Amino acid sequence: MSQPELSVVIPVYNEEAGLQRLFDRLYPALDALSISYEIIFVNDGSRDRSAAILADQFRLRPDVTRVVLFAANFGQHMAIMAAFEHSRGDKVITLDADLQNPPEEIGRLVDKLREGYDYVGTIRRQRQDSLFRRYASRMINRIREKTTRIRITDQGCMFRGYARNVVEMVNACKEVSTFVPALAYTFAKRPVEIEIGHEERAAGESKYSFYSLIRLNFDLMTAFSLVPLQLVSLTGMLLSVLSVATYIIVILQRLVTRGLSDGIYVVWDRDILQFFLTGVMLFSLGLIGEYVGRIYQQVRPRPRYIVEALLESGNRADRSPAATLPAAAAFPASQSTRHAS
Ligand code: UDP
Ligand code: MG
Q1: Into how many domains does the chain fold?
Q2: Are residues 201 and 238 in the same domain?
Q3: 218 falls within a domain
Q4: Is residue 220 part of a domain?
Q5: What's the CA angle centered on 94, arms 315 and 215, to 5 degrees?
Q6: Which segments constitute the Glycosyltransferase 2-like domain (predicted)?
Q7: 329 CA to middle of ligand 2, Å?
Q8: Ligand 1 binding pocket mutation candidate from 95, 154, 207 (most atoms within 8 A of CB)
Q9: Are residues 190 and 335 part of one domain?
């Protein structure tokens, strides 16, 4: 496989039910574009038959298929980062494995990249997700707009195109917890957004639980902004000033109206105030913890992900992108197909 013009990147986690349908639409759609392309599937430690299905597909179309097999589940964004490191195309397009992003629209993203835009974002025309997901996502979008310099209308949609220069910059980042579209956006010189179709998941169910969605959004916020941290300290300061002021006013009021007859009970609604402040304090601690946790992860020189095997024609499995990382030294040389980054 010589250097293709287009790399299509697809993270796969427990998608056995829908993969065949994906192949049936993806390959014809790309063949119809008459563009030189490669498809990089990253099996993100699926526990179902996804890896085997991908290996079968590799054998069917080794000319354009490459498969990166993770040793465990490292998350959608790490899977995309790994695929970026392995990608060779001048243009890179990411999409989901569940056919929520119609492969037939890849051509439109390619056109934009050919026009010279180096980042093509997408806005889902009619988002086919639950009402809760749509509203929660709208709210998070708004908060992000206010706290970061990242302008992405529809952050949840992974159907995006990136020019090689942006991909190279992303590859230069060794971030542990990140959100690829936002990270890439920070490097884009000419970003653009287009409207795109969105379909219901073809098979299986969303791999994001409520919990992992919260995790993902904390990643997004903390990776690109210190504003939440600053807001907490500002709020904390404001609340302390307010509570002291309230306290003084209430005591003065009681002294004036009732004198010292109430004795020590001049303290007004202390319970509620304490309750409130405890909440604020716990939240602040938690938020600081979010940052500290990420600093801890980042300073620990552990591999961000482990590639167990690489399926590609003329397998170059020992071409380790992590050879430059100190973490790679932690793995014995005998495991040449396992490389870490
Ligand atoms: N995915 C992944 N690793 C994970 C979770 C998801 O590679 O830990 C993949 C998944 O297989 C799919 C894409 O990321 O291709 C988007 O996941 P999903 O459709 O479940 O997310 P949603 O559309 O609900 O946001
Ligand atoms: Mg989906």
Answers
A1: 2
A2: no
A3: no
A4: no
A5: 105
A6: 7-167
A7: 36
A8: 207
A9: yes
In tens, the pLDDT along 188-246 reads 999 999 999 888 888 888 888 888 888 888 888 787 777 777 777 778 778 778 877 87
- Give domain status of residue 215, yes or no: no
Indicate yes or no: pTM above 0.70. yes
DSSP 186-227: TT-SSEEEEEE-----SSS--S--HHHHHHHHHHHHHHH-SH
What's the domain range around 118?
A: 6-209+303-340
User: For residue 101, what are the CA distances in angstroms to 26, 93, 195, 330?
Assistant: 10, 11, 12, 39
At a CB cut-off of 8 Å and minimum separation 6, what does 194 contact? Answer: 108, 109, 112, 120, 121, 122, 123
What is the Å distance from ligand 1's center to 65 Cα?
20
Same domain, yes or no: 52 and 94: yes
Same domain, 314 and 185: yes
Instruction: Supply the DSSP symbol for 252.
Output: H
The 10 Å Cβ neighbour count of residue 102 is: 17
Token duo for residue 159: 């159907």
Q: Is 300 helix (H, G, I), strand (E, B) or coil?
A: coil
Distance 156 CA to ligand 1 centre (A): 11
Residue whose CA is closest, atom 13 of ligand 1? 96
Co-location of 51 and 184 in the same domain? yes
